[in-house]
Amino acid sequence: MNSNDVSTTNSSSSSSSSIQLFANFDSGNILRYERVTSSTSSSQPSTNPIETDTNTNTTTTTTNNNNNNSGADNGLNTISHTLPKHDIEFNVWTKRDCEGTPRINGNRSWFYFGVKGGYGKCIRFNIMNLNRQGKLFEMGMLPVFRTVPGHEKWSRIYIRPCWETINEDFKLSFVHRMADVKNSITYFAFCFPHSYEDMQQLLNTYDNLYNSRLADYYLEHPSLPVNNSDIYYHRETLCYSCDSNKIDLITITSYKGITKEREHHFDKKLFPDASTINKRPYQFRNKRIFFLSSRVHPGETPAAFVFLGFLDFILKIDDPRAKLLRDSYIFKLIPILNPDGVQRGHYRTDQFGVNLNRMYLDPDFEKHPSIYAAKSLIAYHHINNCVSPRSPLSIYDIFKDVMPSEQLNNQQILNDSQFQ
């Protein structure tokens, strides 16, 4: 598990007494911070001046993006607008992926931290060392916040931030007035977070809503009529990550075409609980497989919400589109491919600094278990569930490193002549 606790106490003035920033929670990310004073400001010159307009009582930041080495930051050359005058200011640095290890790398866009104290104060936060993300903010993106208790739903901050590129670091500045509620905590993040723990809690809720034993009951009592439109929901552990986090696999379809046969335990490295805690799902006749995965890059949290939107849709019992899809397909869903990176607050890589999205060609189960498992799952179902003879892929060439050779017999492998 990650160790993101960087909370300290700043008591240099009464206005900022006991303000703490911390990130010792799932998906949190902050390396260090400092309160900005007149001496701090003078010791950290900027390529773009920050001026105080005494007539309007606001701080004006002019941003020049001429120093542009990344396609992610190709936008307006000059941006200028005002931020409200603040009471307290902090410089904040995020952890790069694998910070403090030999595998440290340059991915550093994700930040997520909590703030205790400063109640009722307007605080300016300068995130000092992000990757270049100017185009996102030019298009209207805003960091998000929530306050517990009081404003517990994540919302975008109310005032547009300022930003500038200094050398290779993207500096993002924003202000927020803290809730005047004693003992409240306000959290800030690059965009809407969704942690590994959040996903586990949500999946546990779905487990309680959909009785996976219903299929057993139907099949044990063949005289009972089966409602084909009922939702078949099955959750199992595909494998465990290097940090022993679950890689969940969810199977969703309708009861149409259900058989008494279970899916095979086709790879002994996978489904560690299949023989003890949870059996494999049932097989269905004449249904293709639809595979969906999410969060191979941990900091790309919008993927989690796209996934959850689809999950909510495909489980709608009264939506004719969802019903038709369930009758036609078996949906295999992996909610998080990189839970270790998610927990650590990484932006793009796992705990070894590996971009798992680049490992599909030759995944190693010991190093990239989720990718190995996903590829093995796709290979198995591509071969065994109504593979189209017009497929342009050579199954053996693509999946020979995943599928055991004894399972790739002549009947399962499509000859090159079939692809004409």
From TrEMBL:
It comes from the Eukaryota. Residues 36-76 are annotated as: Disordered. Residues 192-420 form the Peptidase M14 domain. One of its GO terms (biological process) is proteolysis. Pfam families: Peptidase_M14 (PF00246). Residues 37-47, 54-69 have a biased composition (Low complexity). Its cofactor is Zn(2+). GO terms for molecular function: metallocarboxypeptidase activity; zinc ion binding. InterPro entries: Cytosolic_carboxypeptidase, Peptidase_M14. Belongs to the peptidase M14 family. This is Peptidase M14 domain-containing protein. It comes from Rotaria sordida.
